Amino acid sequence: MRKIVLLALVVVCALAIVHAFFMPWAKASASATKVAKSLSNSATGGVLKNSPFAGKFLRGLNKATDKISEIGDIQIKTSVRGYDIPTLINKKTSQVAISIASIMFKDAKDLDKKSMLVYLLPLLALVCIALGVVGLKNKIALIVMAVLSGGIAAVGLYNLMTVNLSSLPVQISIEQGLWQTMYAYLMIFIIGIVWIVFDMKEVKK
Fold it and tell me: 24 pairs with which residues across the strands?
């Protein structure tokens, strides 16, 4: 009965990971005036610095900024869900997706290819369920489940807790979906360890 309860807890955690894949993982928020200032700096300090286009661009930008100031600053918000990340990175259409992938993988090299590994998170959660089922009779499956879930949780939580969000290209906040994924894997690891300990005690008896 104890093993069935532990297996049920693994299933709940795995389903939480699958559900989190469709939840927001990161959210960015920036003011319209801040974006306008960034564009202005790019025009005056970049390759357009001495071109006739720069002056025309800045005049138009200043008019737009003045209009924004009249009605109050506007907050630009966007969020990215887990399943969106590989598509957005390959299209290079979202700095939020690129930033969150950079947090997860640390090294930005070949980020478009690495981002595909995101799809493994819900799949490996289902693998943990299968390992739990096999673990009802085979302790090795429980060890594999504990190592797998523990490794994902350790790397993921370490990266999330040590990242300097202020250094990212856009100002983002980590949302519930990604936290839920990592903590659910941590719970599977803890359940696996408890399960192994119980099995060892039963063998000794």
Answer: 81
CA 129 from centroid of its chain's CA atoms: 22
pLDDT (tens place) for every residue of the chain, 205 residues total: 888 999 999 999 999 999 999 998 888 765 544 544 544 454 444 444 444 444 444 455 455 555 545 444 444 457 788 888 887 777 665 566 666 777 777 665 677 777 788 899 999 999 999 999 999 999 999 999 999 999 999 999 998 888 777 765 567 788 899 999 999 999 999 999 999 998 887 766 6
Question: Token pair of 182, please?
Answer: 């990592």
User: What is the rounded CA–CA span in Å between residue 60 and residue 68?
Assistant: 13
Helix (H) or strand (E) holding 25: strand 24-31
- Give the residue ranges of DSSP H helices in the chain: 2-20, 32-45, 52-71, 85-91, 95-105, 111-114, 120-134, 139-162, 176-204
Cβ-based neighbour number of residue 164 at 10 Å:
7
CA separation, residue 135 to residues 50, 116, 189 (Å): 69, 29, 13
Report pTM: 0.73
